[in-house]
Amino acid sequence: MKNLEQKLNPYMPSWEYVPDGEPYVFGDRVYVYGSHDKFNGDVYCMLDYVCYSAPVDDLGAWRYEGVIYRKDQDPANEDLQGNLYAPAVTVGPDGRYYLYYVLSSWGVVSVAVCDEPAGKYEFYGYVHHADGTYLGQKDGDEPQFDPAVLTEGDRTYLYTGFCGVGDKSRYGAMGTVLGPDMLTIVEGPVFVAPGEPYSHDTSFDGHAFFEGPSIRKKDGKYYFIFSTQLFHELGYAVSDDPLKGFEYKGVLVSNGDLNIDTYKPADKPMFYCANNHGSMVQIGDDYYIFYHRHTNGTNYSRQGCFEKLKEKADGTFEQAPMTSCCGMEPLRSEGTYPTYIACNLFTDTDVTYIPWSGWMDDRFPKITQEGGDIIPKDRMEAPICSEPIVEDHGSWRSTNYAYIANMRDSATAGFKYFDCKNVKEMSVCTKGYATGKLEVRTKWDGEVIGSFEIGYANEWHETKADIEIPDGVHDLFFTFKGTGHLQFAAFSFC
């Protein structure tokens, strides 16, 4: 597919599920570390850690670095009952790369080490107090969760924590200082951000710390990024000191585009969401926020996305909208695009959250895939429509492809942004027991500019229609109006 050299969300292959993205620039590449969900998984983070990287000057050329650490490498996980929760990486005083994580079965911070950013990490040890007691097991400690790390000289700042709404047994996010061995606590822990029960007389009120801490340094200030009590958003706080004085500043991204009122009402969810976790990174002169979205109608098949941030004069950031183009150059109005890059997906029934038990019910659309989990290796593509949706990533190709399933009446898929030039005709690739129309708009509630006739079909097939789009940069929204349930795989500019 010739459009894949452009920047697309999700930026990893359509079948890859790496949430909780922690991006870092090492040398001339940006590396993203995260947990690893399984397609149709039963719980979070079922798979081993993998890594993806890209050149800093080409954020569309992501490379699969392979498995960097297995969950059976942790001595405390011999029974494999613990999954590898969200990790973080830092370069120690010795120049080696240290990977911090917490097993789902044990509230202690584990550490692995490697001589290169995306090599084979080896287990190194557990974070502990000076007396040898593991962090998380001493009086006054809280159970460890979601580590974040930042090394300055021979001091490494470690941030951890989880605090549910109404849970007064935990205060919030902890900050701890480790010595040059990267394991031993030399200062702290102290609390740096409050959870919801303790946030009401602070700047965090309404956006208190929930989970997913991350830490970055910008212009001499410390930026503490975290998942807020609202789950779907990544908020951030800023301080001159890494262990105190953090003041909440705003939201960087929401995986439902909530809060944003520039193209729809602020409280209207534009994608089904649940938890969120990620961080920001500076690449060149620009800043980006990495986050994840929820697919397959569950909490447990999350995919990484990123957006370019817009910085304000005071060093804070505007909330980034979810896009199909990573908030970068608009996509070209030529060739074929897969629908799994939809940044908006909703019906006329506003529902924000995917329940913990799984998909709400079959009234709602979801992004899913044909086939099961894929282990990267040489594969040929499955041709559909007039032009195959080919995912060519260098050493391997994917036979599987993703699509939007279960589009019932009023279901809408939105894509941002397209630089439209001389668009007179389009086609869509669909199947399913559905009859009606697939309407096209350039605004979610705008006038219909054209439509495709939809009929019953048990195989993927192409339907063309005269769709004239004014020249310029536009959103594209496709809304199904009719009966049955439509499967929507791709659309093309003819």
UniProtKB/TrEMBL annotation:
Domain of life of the organism encoding this protein: Bacteria
Ranges in a coiled coil: none
Matching InterPro entries: Glyco_hydro_43, Glyco_hydro_beta-prop_sf, Glycosyl_Hydrlase_43_Enz
Keyword 4Fe-4S appears in the UniProt entry: no
SUPFAM superfamilies the record matches: Arabinanase/levansucrase/invertase
Gene3D superfamilies on file: Galactose-binding domain-like (2.60.120.260), Glycosyl hydrolase domain, family 43 (2.115.10.20)
GO biological process annotation, one example: xylan catabolic process
Keywords: Carbohydrate metabolism, Glycosidase, Hydrolase, Polysaccharide degradation, Xylan degradation
GO molecular function: hydrolase activity, hydrolyzing O-glycosyl compounds
Family in the record: Belongs to the glycosyl hydrolase 43 family.
Protein's name according to its UniProt entry: Alpha-N-arabinofuranosidase
